[in-house]
Amino acid sequence: MESFGVSRTVLREALRTLTSKGLIESRPRVGTRVRPRDAWNLLDADVLDWYSRVAPQVDFALKLQEMREMIEPYAAGLAAASHNDVSFAALDDAHAAMVAARNVDEWVRADLEFHLSVLAACSNELLIPLGTLIERTLEAQLRLNAKRADVFNASLDEHTAVFEAIRDRNAPRARDAMAALLGVTRGRIEA
To answer: Regarding the domain with residue range 45-190, which homologous superfamily does it belong to in the CATH classification?
Structure first.
């Protein structure tokens, strides 16, 4: 309370929030302790964002990449098979923004929207929150990858291949194109 100049009520609320996120535990006569990392709720957007800021950058990026490699190719296949006019319009807008991007910031915003639109277009309401969950950390990864490439939009062709496969409702091609795109991403992370 003294260090941060806050009231007892604010401190209690902060501790309650950290407890709900699995970061700490409070017990009578024992006190408040930080829980082991494997007990943290990394599927909480705040915890994931906080963890991404302190974890070794390359290690965290590779773990996020592994998760993306497990989910996004399948999601692209689902999007190809089941997108509707509204979800495809969002994907089309994101792709057009990528094509029109003139700098890293524009590219990263469009790239993020592209990947979130793929998740939304797959018509699986359980996958959509996944995009929201990883949005902040994914944006950081996309920015890093754009800066590591020779030019910020170096992966435009790979994104276009995913877009066209989804547009054409070709699920196997969409899965393969997304896997190839993520392979390029992995290569930049590992470089």
So the answer is: GntR ligand-binding domain-like (1.20.120.530)
pTM here is 0.81
Encode pLDDT of 141-182 as tens digits: 777 777 777 788 889 999 999 999 999 999 999 999 999 999
Neighbours of 102 (CB within 10 A): 9
Rounded to whole angstroms, the Cα distance separating 43 from 55 reads 15
Contacting residues for 107 by C-beta, under 8 A, at least 6 apart: 98, 101, 146, 152, 153
Are the C-beta atoms of residues 129 and 68 closer than 8 Å to each other?
no
Domain boundaries along the sequence of the chain? 8-39, 45-190
pLDDT bin (cut points 50, 70, 90) of residue 1 is confident
Instruction: Give the Å distances, CA to CA, from 61 to 87, 133, 137, 139, 187.
Output: 28, 15, 9, 11, 12
What mean pLDDT value characterizes the chain? 89
Biggest alpha carbon–alpha carbon distance for the chain: 63
